Every structure is written in C-alpha cells, then in structure tokens.
C-alpha cells in the first residue's frame, strides 16, 4: 500500500521471528511495571493505539503488535489465519521477549484472539480484558453504523470530543493477507461454551451503542468472576469514541490482576 506522506506507520519498529513468520511489534514503558498487551480490532495496525498509549504507560509496560497478515507483520499458509494461531503467535512473542505473564486486552475482533489466548495459554495471563466482544459466528452488522452515529451525537450533545481517526491506522502490506486475517471469524464456531474454563481476572466492557452489547454481557456472565462495564455514549470500537473512559477502565482494573 502506497503512502504519499510520512506517517507513524512508516516508522518500522521491532521484528521477531515467531512461528515461521516475522511479527512486527513495539514494547514500551518501564520494565518494572505490569505488562499490558494490546490486540487490535479488525483492519487496524498497532499505530491505532497512539491515542491511549501515553496514559497507559503511566501504569503499564505496553506491548503492541500486528497480527499476521496485517500492518507490517508477515504471514504464512492460508490455513494459519485463525484465532488459535494468532493466540499462539502472541505466546511465542511473549516468550521471545522473556515476558512470563501479561494482561492481555483485545478490542472487538482482537477480543476473539484474547479469548483464545486465555483458553490456550492460561499460565501466561495476569488478567484478561475484552472490549466490544462477540464470540459467536458472524451476525448482521447492518445497524452498527447507525448506532455509532447515535453515540457520536450523544457525545457531541454532552460536549465531549471524539478523536480524529487516522487513515494510517488501517495501512497494511498485502491486501489478500489482510483480508484472510480479518475473515477468520467466518471459519470458526462459537467459543462461548468454553468460557467457563477461564480463571484469570477478567474485564468485559462494551459500548451501549454497540450491536455486540448483548453478546458481551452474556460473555461476562459465562466467565467466573468476570467484571462487566457498560460504556455509555459509545459505539463499536469503543477506544475511538471515549479513549479517556477506556484508559480509566484499564487502569482501574490493575489492582485485580494476578502477580506477573
């Protein structure tokens, strides 16, 4: 994908050889703080977290990475585009960085990877967070745009500004690979039946104006001891509606984390 001006996407960060591909990542912050791993929503790369990065670094060491086939990361066989593989890639990246445990947070599509990580690598978790999450096969998202517009109107009426969404948050190297990454949900079933096995401290949060709201609330009920937060005046991709609230929820959850 060509760009006509220099953006944060053009500043390549670190690369690690994980599961036969190169994963693009950046690890920032004080090493004596608990590690927070952020997993992007669909069609986004690791630059999208810039709007919440600095306040998160006050409490966490933050790891961001591009899923295989997205951003600047490499990719392998078509069959490897699935959430279990994405979770195993993250586990390999943590091992590469000698990080024993992390607070793993997934946003929207990224929450599916976070759920798989919790199920496949429970010993690597200090905590789990899933924002705007649904784990069932794909549903009709036709009203999501209207709900998002409603949330934006409510925010404007309350005198709250939304951040400007940057085009480079959605840049990638290969169209076909990015498409395969972001259609994995079409090839996987319902994960809800396995959620009772998650034992890590868990935060589930969802915007009131999000088609996934009912699904997210159900997911919180299925995970033992999970904490559910409703994000008012917020649509799908909650961090892009209310980054301040997102940061507060993630920061306030820190005391609940297991020891790293």
Describe the 3D structure.
There is one protein chain. Helices cover 29% and strands 20% of the residues. By secondary structure, the chain is an alpha/beta fold. It has helices at residues 50-57, 83-96, 109-120, 144-157, 175-181, 213-222, 243-252; strands at residues 14-18, 21-28, 35-39, 61-65, 102-107, 125-131, 202-209, 227-235. A hairpin with a 2-residue loop joins strand 1 (14-18) and strand 2 (21-28). Helix 2 (83-96) packs across helix 3 (109-120).
Low-confidence parts lasting 5 or more residues at pLDDT below 50? none
- Which CATH class is shown? Alpha Beta
Determine the CATH topology: Rossmann fold
Number of domains: 1
List the helices and strands and how they pair.
Elements: E1 14-18, E2 21-28, E3 35-39, H1 50-57, E4 61-65, H2 83-96, E5 102-107, H3 109-120, E6 125-131, H4 144-157, H5 175-181, E7 202-209, H6 213-222, E8 227-235, H7 243-252
Helix pairs in contact: 1-7, 2-3
Record keyword descriptors for this entry.
alpha/beta; Rossmann fold; 8-stranded mixed β-sheet
